Amino acid sequence: MSDNQKIIELKRRINNDEFRMKEAEIKEQKRIKKQNSTKKRKRKLNVLNLGFSIFVLYFAYTAFNQYQMIKTLESQIAEKNQIKAEAQKEAQELKQDVEKINDNEEEMLDLVEKVARNQYKMVKPNETIYIDKNRNENKFLNGIGFDEED
Questions:
Q1: Does residue 129 lie in a domain region?
Q2: Domain-embedded: residue 60
Q3: Does 143 reside within a domain?
Q4: Among residues 13, 35, 33, which one has the least CA distance to residue 25?
Q5: Number of domains in the chain
Q6: With 80 as the cut, is the pLDDT of residue 115 above it?
Q7: What tens digit of pLDDT does each residue of 92-107 get?
Q8: Looking at the domain assignment, is residue 75 inside a domain?
Q9: Which range of residues forms the domain containing residue 76?
Q10: pLDDT of 140 over the 60 cut
């Protein structure tokens, strides 16, 4: 080998040694940065995890409250539907009563007249009442509402 080649070879070795030293320094700096950045990442992840946890808890709380609200509303709806059904049943019964009254109007008038005459001793206009004084059950002699006690 010639001197020139030896010089070039030495320069390469020097450069390689410097290169290796620089490379080692850079790797060390990256390792240090990585350690510092992982701490920051861990902090960021902790903050994100905390935020996500708070969101999940809020969502669960809201969902539970809405579920309870829906249950109370459903029970109120059931009660109102029951009241509605009872009212419809009563209305249907009243309609049937009205239809019966309209169908049997003459019979109803006769029944009302009979009750008015017998229980309340009512008379028609220009009608004459004859009272039998010999009867003990006569309410006019004893007074209306008089009950015989046995």
A1: no
A2: yes
A3: no
A4: 33
A5: 1
A6: yes
A7: 999 988 887 777 777 7
A8: yes
A9: 3-96
A10: no
What letters, b where the CB count within 10 A reaches 16 and e where it falls short, cover 13-50? eeeeeeeeeeeeeeeeeeeeeeeeeeeeeeeeeeeeee
SS (H, E, C) 67-80: HHHHHHHHHHHHHH
Closest CA to 83 of 93, 94, 72, 91: 91
The string of DSSP codes covering 24-92 is HHHHHHHHHHHHHHHHHHHHHHHHHHHHHHHHHHHHHHHHHHHHHHHHHHHHHHHHHHHHHHHHHHHHH
Measured distance CA(131)–CA(121) in Å, rounded:
12
Q: Count Cα atoms within 13 angstroms, Cβ side, for 140.
A: 11
pLDDT at 32 (0 to 100): 81
Answer for the pair 133, 141: CB distance below 8 angstroms, yes or no.
yes
Q: What is the pLDDT of residues 41-69, one digit of tens each?
A: 666 678 888 889 999 999 999 999 999 99
